[in-house]
Design brief:
The chain is mainly alpha-helical. It has a single domain, classed as Four Helix Bundle (Hemerythrin (Met), subunit A), CATH 1.20.120.1760. The chain is built from eight helices and no strands. Helix 3 runs antiparallel to helix 6, helix 5 packs parallel to helix 7 and helix 6 runs antiparallel to helix 7.
């Protein structure tokens, strides 16, 4: 059996199954809520693992949607919305941990990281509404997940979690600026304007 034939068999089974992309998205949300609760109890390694698995669900739901043909416009909207909630809820719990320990600077870094993360997604959405593809920037969703995951998994070693949050805040802020500049250039470029008329 060739690779194409195997893919078709898998695709056929997925279409026949009851599994939906929305179910995968909601599973990712539930796992990230579990991660947030675990972080609240300072079970950082378990919280990090739950966050990683939940984030993997976030990457799988889109692929499954395309592969199975079960995707819907609402499903794409739900997926994008839940991605923002998941990252935010875990970072909020991390901020609460820092607040309990009197680390106001790290709390501020968490707030900046959440805000910048939301703005990374918002700038892309607004750009695409204007007809500009906007996937530029160093802190994509995958990079942000890796940084936060490393911080959680190694939180018991020195100041790794605090460093991870600061790196996340700085890189996300830089990404927002990169996207703003990218959109400005695209919208002021005569070639781009002519192509979209």
């Amino acid at each position: 059996m060739t690779a194409d034939q195997r893919r078709e068999v898998v695709r056929g089974r997925l279409i026949e199954s009851r599994l939906t992309p929305n179910a995968i998205s909601i599973t990712g949300l539930v796992l990230c809520i579990v991660a947030a609760v675990l972080v609240g109890y300072e079970q950082f390694v378990l919280g990090g693992l739950a966050f990683i698995v939940g984030s993997i669900c976030d990457t799988l739901d889109g692929r499954y949607s395309r592969m199975s043909g079960k995707g819907t416009p609402f499903g794409a909207f739900l997926d994008s919305t839940l991605d923002r909630i998941e990252e935010g809820i875990v970072l909020t719990t991390v901020a609460a941990y820092f607040a309990r320990n009197g680390n106001d600077a790290a709390v501020a870094a968490c707030v900046i990281a959440v805000l910048a993360s939301l703005m990374v997604s918002y700038t892309r959405a607004r750009a695409e509404a204007l007809g500009v593809e906007c996937k530029v920037g160093i802190a994509t969703r995958a990079i942000r997940v890796v940084i936060l995951s490393v911080g959680l998994l190694f939180a018991d070693i020195g100041s790794i979690l605090e460093i991870a949050v600061w790196v996340l805040a700085v890189l996300s802020t830089i990404t927002v600026l990169q996207r703003v500049l990218h959109v400005r250039k695209a919208l002021t470029d005569p070639d781009f304007t002519e192509a979209t008329l």
